[in-house]
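Appendix B: complex inputs.
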Amino acid sequence: MIDLTGKVAIVTGGSRGIGADIARLLGRQGAKVAVNYNKSADKAEEVVAAIKAAGSDALAFQADVSSFADAEKMVEKVKETWGTVHIIVTSAGMNWDGVIWKMSPEQWQKVIDVDLTGTFNFIRATAPIFREQKYGRIVTITSINGLRGKFGQTNYSAAKGGVIGLTKAAAKDLGKYLVTSNSVAPGFILTEMGEAMPDDFKQVAINEGVLKKAGKPEDVSNLVAFLASDAAGHITGEVIKVDGGQYI
Ligand code: NAP
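Resulting structure:
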């Protein structure tokens, strides 16, 4: 059993899907959890209530991850409330698909801003705290489509590939301060984002995997919780797939 008692965690995109499951699991393992949301205030409050019901502390914070000012403000508020931050998990993300010959510059930029710059903003805002206290756990959420490239997802694949480079470089910048930085690369996971895919795309994703099934949010959150714990203190700069063998 992973024990996160005494740890303070921020989970971006904690209101729904994979992020909500991560936030609830970190809370069940004893961490105080700052649940970030952008638009889904009610969902974020449900996650907070579940964490409190499990006996830990949690608060919901609105912040658009693509805004560095929002990220700084949220991290500052968490520090004021609980004294510090030990764990940052960046799960906020979106897609806006289209083939390259039809993708608008706006479509490109929006996904880069949320998925890539949003990840940078929260790592950048927590890094000084981690460096100062010589402890920190960075866990980013990329995608197998950031490793392999996906039809119709030049923006998303570029953003998620960028997240991998960012995570590895952060591991190098912060390593001597005993801060670890790792990325989790899910395959097809049943969340609202996963469900929104056309049925034939979903079937293709399931058939690609050697386990022939879709993943569940907890398949991802179990690994995130391990990487966020003291037990993973000698693992850094890694990208670990959770994809049922979809991309081997
Ligand atoms: P989801 O169910 O669509 O949830 C997306 C989450 O991101 C929501 O909590 C949403 O918050 C938040 N978010 C979006 N834009 C935001 C912004 N500008 N600022 C702050 N939060 C924002 O997605 P999911 O399936 O859980 O995906 C979570 C992560 O896993 C993403 O990074 C995604 O790319 C990655 N992933 C998912 C799959 C999959 O198959 N599901 C596969 C590989 C990777 P609000 O609702 O509050 O706005």
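The first strand starts at residue 8 and ends at 12.
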